Amino acid sequence: MTEPSFVTETRAAYDTVAADYAELLRDLLADSTFDRAMLGAFAELVRGGVVAELGCGPGRITGHLASLGLDVFGVDLSPQMVAVARRAHPELRFEEGSMLALDLPDASVHGIVAWYSIIHTPPEQLPTVFAEFARVLVPGGRVLLAFQVGDDHRHHIEHAYGHDISADAYRLSPDNVSKRLAEAGLSETARLVREPEGQWENTPQAYLLARA
């Protein structure tokens, strides 16, 4: 099957920015009370089970989840991001992979975190992604999503983290995301929408928890 162009472009963009992205965002979590709170709540809900961070980038969230006591591994589309993650967290497992077709057995994980990693998937492709989430989760497994809030329209990125790139991103409607999750058998259990904070944000941010 031919790879969708948005997957190819997203991989190339993150391969280009991997090292600078990791350096610039390395300490971001320390300054975000809400990020830590939502990750902490998720950790309490899935404690004792295996967790996959999908779209893990340089592994900063994977590492934080591990520090909370979770059995967690990371998957990312970008080989360069995976290489950075492995160097930063040699004690953890990181693999290359696509959320459209996860190389994971059915009902093999108790939790999934997709931390700003669904934002490069066109909204009409999200049902495929969420169906994969539902497939690999155990019954009762949990999902935590984070994403920028908007109206599902495409935003083209030509420069990021000091590099010229070409990639699309989507600011998503929490209601629409929740509806697509439900269609895949994943029911929303909690939601938080907050105003933008700091230099990296200019739109509201959403966190959404769901259960298989």
TrEMBL record:
One of its GO terms (molecular function) is methyltransferase activity. The keyword Methyltransferase applies. Residues 51-141 form the Methyltransferase domain. Transmembrane segments: none annotated. The keyword Transferase applies. Keywords: Methyltransferase, Transferase. Pfam families: Methyltransf_25. This is Methyltransferase. InterPro entries: Methyltransf_25 (IPR041698), SAM-dependent_MTases_sf (IPR029063). It comes from the Bacteria. One of its GO terms (biological process) is methylation. PANTHER family: TRANS-ACONITATE 2-METHYLTRANSFERASE, TRANS-ACONITATE 2-METHYLTRANSFERASE-RELATED.
